[in-house]
Queue: 3 jobs
Job 1
Amino acid sequence: MPPIINKDKCIGCMNCVTICPMDVYGKQEKDAKTPVIHYPDECWHCNACVVECPAKALSIRVPLPAMMVFVDAPKKKDAQQ
Amino acid sequence: MINRKKTLECDLLIAGGGAGGMQAAIDAADAGLKVIVAEKANTRRSGNGATGNDHFVCYIPEIHGSEENFINLLWHTQEARGGKDIDLVKSFMYNSFDVVKAWESYGIPMRPHGTWEFTGHCRPGVQGVHLKYAGLEQKPLLTKAALQRGVTILNRCPFTEIITNDAGEVCGGICVDLNGEKPELQVVRAKTVLIATAGSMLMNGASTMGWMFNMIGCPASTGVSTAGAYRAGARLVGLDGAVAPIGVSGCKYFNRGGKATWVGVYTDIDGNPLGPFVTKPDWRYGDFTADFWPGMFRMNIQKGNPVFMNCSEGTDEDIEYMKWGLLHEGNGATLQHLADEGFDFRKHMVEFDAKKGGGGGKGVGIDTFGDGTTTVKGLYAAGVSMGNGMVGIGAAATTGRIAARSAAEYCKGRDIEEAEKADIVEEKAEHYSKLLENDASTGSPTWQEAIIAIQQTMWDYLGSGVRSEKLFQVGLRHLGRIKDKINTVQCPTNHEFMRCLEAENTVQVAMLCMESSRSRKETRGAHNRVDYPFTHPDYDGKLMTVQKIDGQLVTGMRAMRK
């Protein structure tokens, strides 16, 4: 589920529903306050919803298959040698 | 039947409100045209530049010297890859700085640190051509500039079809309005149509097959540019370059964005530099190695040697510059992910690899001339919809301007025609209505199935590293069957309907790519024809073309413009 909505912070402005380029979000069928994440696996991690959210209620979780591979960097040494 | 909305009318209809489409809209409006932009999502945050881009390639004479010198510098970078016609490169060059200044006037910080900063994608001792800027708010600002000029933006209203008259000239376009409870057909009468959507991203597949929108470029770009222009009779170019490994590198598995902004050194796990240019991170350059040697990843993996982007020896200035750059190229989620995982640029290093898919550093699409015209009268192209031009945000915006100004000239003396009466409108209305009747309860396939089926066929029969007539025959036969199945894809909501239309375009582009590759009977670079294992001089300096003539698919080639 890449986008995560903090329901305590969400003010129900539906800005994320309007601007998400991948149409990930939708409105709840009944008059619920928060939007619903309809298509989580179509998130492109563009962060538009996070940037646009006036209540800072959104965050993106990168799915496990897209997790970056990282290791410890070696100890500093003089690269010129 | 699908509901038909009241026909709209304009001088210029723009398909796609990304950076290219919005720049075109602004300039066409400034030239006095009535402009409508048909956008699949919302122009405030859509396209490859939704939350920023890495660089804006740009020619500033006082920095780059003569035009000849600029082109030499340009060819020194990754922009040299792929078949680019020189008239397109030159028209871009002449106009790029003016567009940069225009962006500054819209409020986009093009010199956020006070001077024109050409950092990244370059190496010590050679002047760069990639202008670093702050793009995070570029799309809202371009949208604002367009609205201020009276441009009409139809959000959630993807462009689906070019309408031509009996003479084969453009007279309008079809869109589907997805704002209501059910999709509605929107016909727009237009003297000209400008295609500014990008290429067919979903054709190529992500390296994480189960997470198909994990892509370097915008997955909403699904090829209405290429497929729609083909259906309208336009000549396409460069399609044989599709599904080859591309020269773009980035974080392994996390495919969004490339390496452009990273300030580090390509090293092995022991910290030994793998390229010849830098041994310490330097914010002015990055590591240029993979820009000109994308095969370094494959070559190192074959030696059992994973490749890392090692920023650990950077100064505070290097690391801060990189983080600022990542945020403004649309990688805010990347930074957040790294922070969430406890990543420290000082202590860790990220594995990098080469991305797959795409056209090898150029578009795979419409054959376009230096003024943005195409082989169809009244049809213009900009950005990555072009098969023979530059790619990137600078090229998108600049070619958007060039095409819009050409279109404005063309509009003079043209009359509006009754595009809604064209046969294709009725045909599409019937077709869309049938798709909307496809019922999930009858076990009809989903759009995801269709896209995955296309992707695996493309990789096995075009992108495996081996190409042959027999592989093309089987691949085309299979794609043909997938194409028929897409007519039965279930469309219970507007969303699925939109994705189904994307699958239709994706399979058409896939088949055109395969046909174009089939017609190239030689081996050259990634086009490895085992049945024609030699490089044939007849293809020297040529680009492969494909076009519909009298209803028939015709492949060919033409000389590259020098």
Job 2
Amino acid sequence: MSTAATVYRSDILGEEVHRYVLPSGLRVLVHPKPGYLKKFAVLSANYGSVDSRFVDPETGELRDMPAGIAHFLEHKLFELKEGDAFDAFSRQGASGNAATSFRTTSFFFSCSEYFAKNLRTLVSLVTSASFTAAAVEKERGIIEQEIRMYEDNPDWRIFMNLVEGLYRDHPVRIDITGSKESIARIRYQDLLSCHRWFYHPENLCLVVCGDLDSERIVATVHRALGAGRNEGAAERIDIDEPRRVLRNRIDVELPVVRSRLLIGFKDPWVPVHGRDHQRRDLVTAILLDLMFGSSSHTWQRLYEEDVIDDSFYATYAGEEDFGFVTLGGEVDEPDRVRRRLMREIRKFGKKGFSAEDFGRVVHKMIGRFVGGLDSTEGTAFMLLSSEFRGVDPFVIPTLLRTITRDEIMERHARLFGDRNHCTSIGRKGKGRSRLV
Amino acid sequence: MPELSPERNLVEFELPGAVRLFVYRTEKFKTSFVNIILGRPLDERTSCAALLPYVLRRGTTSHRDMSSIARLLESLFGASLDVDILSFGERQMLSFRLDLVEERYLFMGGRDLLAKGLDLVRELFLEPVLDGGCFPNETFEQERENLRRFVAGMVNDKGRYAFDRCVSRMCEGEPYARYEYGALPEIDALTSESLTELWHDTLRSAPIDVFVVGSTDPGRVRDLVVGAFGGLRSGEEVTDPPPAVRRGPGKLTRVVERDDVMQARLVMGFRTRIGYGDPLSIPLVVWNTVFGGGASSRLFRHVREKHSLAYYCSSSVDQSKGVAFVQAGVDGTQAGRVERIVRRQMGDLARNGPTLDEVRAAKAYLKAGVLSITDSAPRIAGFFLERRSTGAVIGIGELLDRISRVRRADVARAAATVKPDTYYLLARGDE
């Protein structure tokens, strides 16, 4: 079999990535890491918690699935005909796991030996839904305990409150694991249908990192997968999400020692694709670093005045059809800190930043990109994200150097200019936990 | 297979003033990694020592505040300097970690990053901003408040909190019970003077281990480290303290604490009395893998997969102290059932040993973990630090060999040493 590879290359970094598209439509990215003893593979479906509403390819009708179904399916795919995939990996000297995000469901393993065997196990678990109806019932108890665990996490709770406040219709507002009530409504047949509609080869991508031969990997995967089938894929629907946030404020009491504050800014720059997507995210990262990074004068002032501490962060979550900035942390007086942060945001819009600050932050981001390549897992997930965006991963350092100061200020105006934000507070209160 | 004896890449130097330097030379990575560790006992000054790195990172005479330090690091192409408090057995470790991009991978030049990074750490240690010979009161107060908040906030991480509570009850009166970040009443009693005194004492007498992983020639690294820290010591001998006392278990203690939790947390504490040098050391690690070490372990299969009682249920061993733990997040009303399943599996492993398949899988899993050490600079440094701290100086090749020689009967013998000590449950009042 011959499937010509596209090669992404960076001469200065001495790195290359081979990209293949198999006859089944599966995309395979191989990142050779000579001298590394560990091998890592991740097979990811372009299907996550946001894909709960779609057009049923069999009936043509609009379907709404219970919240948490993508995550439930992730759990159940570990069941193989011949036993449990966890056991299979373990017998073959690998450790496997999986994770569901808003956008994707990823299955992965790492090992030093028996790579081909483990790879076949991975392909088999993702592409064949072998679980039984009885096993679905048993899984509810396990997932319910997982949900309870997250419910005890105050930071996750105020984060989800924030996202619910930012979005009216977009399913990003639905908790990835769902709730006890929603997972009770997930039926065996729903899981099988979602697997059929979303786990077809064209909707999957495999990334492999390690001291490995690309051609042999491609041959192994092709043999394991065969022609595959892509007909009957579900159709995503466009979501008519309003530009404005749904709510300006969500304020709850939590059993915490210290209050939590998060401010979210809903990004109007959606939808976005390919290189624009990559650029949007990099420009935003530079902007947030200039505004609130630990080298900024603002950060230093706020830290010295005890407005913020090490728990403070400012970050951006950006996908094709949604994006938002989150900033905040643990605070004593949420309302006072909120007003103060808003003032700093306005001030930045007027005063801007120096050329020196800008150059330094860009240098830092290039350095961090280079350093990130030392981690096989980190690199694999970076490659997945660039593949789903359709960009060359090594374009990032080049893109960083072409970003202009005007772009940064325009981005500031667009993100923060029209006061399109929501505040989520978790106030220290009822059922307060004891101190150590 | 490449690099199966990574010890060959390791060069060890005893520097003036009892600074120990370990240089692991490799061109495998795009970053170089430096970890400087000041070791001291877990004792009544632990809270004070936990504060020290956070006050030191506030500024030096030439970089007077944190953002000025951050700007310097950024100009070194996104170098990072992280301080942390770790513990190992009954030792507290103040860790300063530098990550620097290797110069040959930089797009637009960049020179002497390692020298500049080490010089910054030297400044942090030796030239902090002082006011009348002491740390400025304002800085001190603020960092003390931050530490106080951090320690008080631990209660909001329920799994971690339950674990710490179990350890502190189980090892009451032993240094091991101390949390490496300190305790509230002690933190409240600190003064800027006591911290300044501890700073002087630490620089004078704490053992300093420096690990460097990267492509720089070891002789050059030695010169840089001597240049940075050579003047630190008068050359007095620094000795490591004796290993932790390994007390046997007494009667089983049960502790139940009430908290407003959605999920109850069960932590079962055991004594093994097996330390790093013990012949059963490696069999105990294999036992832990079979029993509760991963997704194909007995605990995972029985508590989670068979009975759907938990999302996580796992075991761990700490050979620096001779203890083991089982941790699970469960429905409070089912905690007794979970405990019975854990005890049944434990008894079965001690009586009958693991199956041949279980031992095979556990060995393969451990082997993969050991091999991958050489793929990560922090793990390389961690491996040699652990070996250093325990006196059990064996290399990766020998470790692999010892794992491969473990038999079912050895695992059963190791399992039989694991004795219940303290069972702890954190649950809602109505459960």
Job 3
Amino acid sequence: MRRADADGTPRLALTGDGVIWLWVTVLMAAVGWYKSINLVLLLAYLMLALMVLNGVLARLHARRVSAAREPVPPAFAGEEVVVALSATNTAARAATAAVEDRSGGDPVTWFAHHLPPGNTARFAARRVFPVRGRSAPGLRVGSAYPFGLLRYDRGVPAEKVVVLPPAGVADADGLRRWLLRSAEGDGRARRVLRRVTADAADVRGVRPYRPGDPIRAVHWRSTARRGALMVREYDAAPSPDLVLVVEPWLPAGPDRADLDAVEAALSLAVTVVRTWAAASGTRATVAVAGDPDSVRTTAPTDAGVRDALVPLADVVGADRFEPLSPQAFDRSLTRAARVVVSSRPDTPYAGALYRSTGRPFLVVCPEDRLAWYQPPAGVVTGGSRTVDSG
Amino acid sequence: MRPDPAFRLSVYLTMGLSCLCVAYAEYDLFPEVPYIAAAAVAVMAWLYRLEGRVELLSIPEANRVGLIVGLANLGWAGFRVAGELNKPSGPGAGELQMVLVALFGPLLVTLMPAKLARKEKHVGDYWALYGMSLVSAGLSGAMAEDAGGVVLIGLYAAAAVWSLSLFHLRRAGGEVPPVPNRTAPPPVAGAASAAPGRAGVRPAAVLAALAAAAAVPVYLLTPRSPGEKLEFGRPRTEVGYEPDKMANLNQTGTLRVNPAVAFEVEADTAGAPKTDLGPEQRWRGQVRRQYLGGEWRPGDAGPALAPFPRAPAGPWVPPRLGPGECRLTFSVPDPGRARQRGEFLADPVGWAGGEDVPVATLTPEGPEGWDAVYDGRFFPHLTPTPGEPHRYTQVWRPEPDADLGPAVLVDPNDPRLRQLTHNPVPRVKEYADRVVDGMVRAGQLPADYRDPFTRLPARRHHDAIARALTGHLSGSGFRYTLTLKRDRKEMDPVEEFLFHAKAGHCERFAAALVLMLRSQGIPAQLALGFKGCEPADAPGRYVVRQEHAHAWAEALIVEFEPGPRGPVSRWRSLDPSPTATDPADAAGGGWAADTRAWLNGVFKELFVDYSQEQRRRALAAAAGFATRWDVLAGAGLVVGGLVAWRLRRRAAAAEPRRAPTLFDRVLAVLARHGFAPQPGDTPREFAAAVGAALRRDARTAAVAGVPGEWAEAFYESRFGGRPLAPARAAALDAGLADLTRALAGRPVAGPVG
């Protein structure tokens, strides 16, 4: 059966049942007419009239119904999402129609029978979008009322669903420790992290020294006043903000493995951002290499994270990227943990970023062995590396 | 899962009605089919109750049941076919084919319950059920002959429409599993229904009515096929000229009236139209002389008649038959493959000895005289062109006695007379002897009427005996009927007719008379043709229809009367068919019987037997009806009323009426003086603006507060729910009157606000 054209052009077409019905009708009419079996001929005409009625009514009913998909927040590929639709009867008579949603791969249909005029029927279904990108298929409103012999379909534009790369699972503490450890190779980076950590701490008060407290934390004034060692007591040090740049590097003439590497890098980036924002409660800034317009900073909420990751849904790999300037970032890079997630090991892009921004970036790629990271199904990773900032 | 009740009921109802259609249509052919159908319907009713309550059959089990049912059917069908082959008259090839096809009906009837007994039915199962019911209904439609069959098929169609609409809804809602192992449609994630009831009977009825309203006119307008009509089931005959069928007295069934035109005749006398041809006019076709086993065959040529006309050697010269002669021009259409074209002549056929034959075919090159056989038969010399009407002319003179042919000389010892006196049914002589003896007792015949040598009635009594036997058959308890039966198939049909049935069609009467005449030594033969005609659209033109087909007897009265050269003989046409029909065929018996007969007639004419001629008449009648001034006026009124109603509805929907409010009164007064509210102004705002404008004018300053008072009163009553007190209403009215007076002396104001 032909359906409405991809551009939504309405189409009236015979269903499979309708084709058989038509053949039977023609055969009966031919035999009935040729052999003057009048009642058989009349039955055939009746069947033909029913088919014509079907076509007319299917068109009428389909045109009475409008459908809309409620905006769906960006969803991770492979994540089960509730997609809500509404079908509204905009005519003055009841309508019987079906709404088909092809987003998420396999089409799903909802059927509204005798929808009163002006009424809206709401449907919802759990859908899984398997592939990142912007799920473009609109909705189709169709009707084959009342016999299912002919079907009238028309396309209804609907908002695209942004599908983010699939997220893996990351251990938040492991990620934090890795960040700190990875910064060891760059003492400056480590000091930055530690200083940021310390500066960002709120002093809760002083207390007596306990073995193991850092000497730095000794509050000398209180110590002098009390005659005993007193140390500052801090609130849990807030995590720094995260600045993550994704480099979707693809060689010219990429093969399947190269494309998979890009997807794996995107999944890793998404996982890091999501885990960091959820665990630390701080903001993360996400950027795509070479695209200053892609820089987004999350709000420390799930919705904010998803919104910030939207540019990753449209990422197309390339073999060279211009380093982002510091002005591209909407936040200070100084007090943030800075990471480059690349699809290739030994990426020179981190060095280029350092030269551009004056700030070193940790580098990670899916090939790194990351003990704290579990990629989503179908994505493979290896070991971890950092890049010399010089 | 048990389907919802409405859908289940619709499916079972549709299947049950199709079984009833088969039972009704095949009852005459297979009397046991109604019992089979009743059993099938009973099983369906039982399954309807059981479905969902107990486990029905799995697919393999249902298939096994179907196989058993099919085999049982096969056995019964074999028995039936064997019976057909062993018929005393031998298997008719056409009848055997029809029987084989009709056997499908009971097979489908028994398979439907087996299919319904399946546990989980998917879409394909339901479509198979609908298909089986459609074939059953189609088969019944092919065999239906009366209103009952048509009504049952109509009920089936209505039930099927209902069921199909519910079937679609259930499929679309995902309640019916798709066909396994085939590409399934997108899964239905959810369904919502706000239908007032799930039964859906009313919408289905509307759909069925609309479809019927569209289908019936198209069917009536469709030109009819030139092919032969397929006859299903029992052998059906119709009143129409088919010599072979007419001559076979073993045929049974109900004769159906066929109004198709057989031929047309133009009659003129000396150039003037002859308008007095009446319903008793006979048109002679073939004669049959040999009787064998209930069938009349042409036989050998008859005795030579003299003088006889000559076949023209050159151009045909019409014979002179004497005063009153007229010219009849015949136009016989080609009946296609349905019938053999015949040639018909006005009876009695007259000729002038020694002159050209009285019949000639009209050709572009001129009339071509027919060939003549010495026994009084004429044949066209030229074969008619297929597809074109056969036009020929006959010179004819109506005789004072329309039953008597021309005077001829016949050799009483002509051996060809023996064929015409051969009676193979001894009991017919026994019957005829009794009748003749009755004539003697009644004094119509002398006691010595028999020839001493032959022991048969002497020739001088032949004419009287012939007329007496004719009168006996047309009265004396014999009935004319269109329903032909053969209850005693071991007897000769004529013998059965005379001694037991005493009812039949014209062929039975004529055949019996011929044999009775022969048994008395009177040469006789069976004549087949038509009797009667209808005036056509012009004076002198007549139409003879198939329903006028007729059979009569012809007796050769040898030495009928003296002649100049010796005794002359004459053929006398004898029509023993009574004119009164069988009460069972008649439409008497009260309004119920009349209505039933009328309905039957309508259904037969419009559906069962709808032919090209009926189509022509129906179209002419429809055109005549549609062009009547009263019908056109009525239709115009109805259409106009509908259009006006629709327009009013649209206007009312576009402009919702607003009930007049209290404030409208002061608005009306102010509007006359140029005060109109701005778009969006509330009554209070408007009143304030008007008040300000009125205050600026000394003439109206005193009444500047009136609009505000009215606005407040409007708000209180409209929104505050406080009706106006009568005193306050009176005060407002007085204020309005003051305002009106004050404004009357003021020039028309500009826009306010």
